[in-house]
Specification:
Helix content: 25-40%
Number of strands: 6
Structural class: alpha/beta
Strand content: 5-15%
Radius of gyration: 19 Å
Largest sheet: 4 strands, mixed
Oligomer: single chain
Distance between the termini: 48 Å
Length: about 160
Amino acid sequence: MIFNRDSLNRIRMNTIKSQLVYFPIIFSLYDNFFINQTKHNDYFNSINSDMGYWRHFGYGMFSIYKSDFDRIGGFNKKFIGWGQEDYELFSRIKASNLSIMRTTDQGLVHLFHKFDCDSSKTSIQITSCRKSKARTVASQRVLTNLIYSKIYSNLTF
């Protein structure tokens, strides 16, 4: 995760003790092989649908006061590893008396990384992991162009 100064200010402004929890919608980069970006500074200046996507269904990044976090019971210890633990916590916060600020934040960029959807997880976790893995390869436009070029580059007219 990379962030800029503006995102830190938004985090501070949108986290209020006993009142407000900040769950930003972060921009998640596609596989570096497809976006061909190397400089971190480029990410903030070129957010577009070929670079990545907004993680509307991601709840892993949030800002909450520790006292509020403790009051709602913290992380559920039943979850092992990646998958669904963030949404379960989000659901408990949503059901509490705390308000949630949820909006896109251009200053929070999730860097691409490979991850493994191993079989030791629950079926819901595996499904969620596979969906995330598929979603982070490249944009539909880039994948379509790649397939199109592979198919038609071998044809002769």
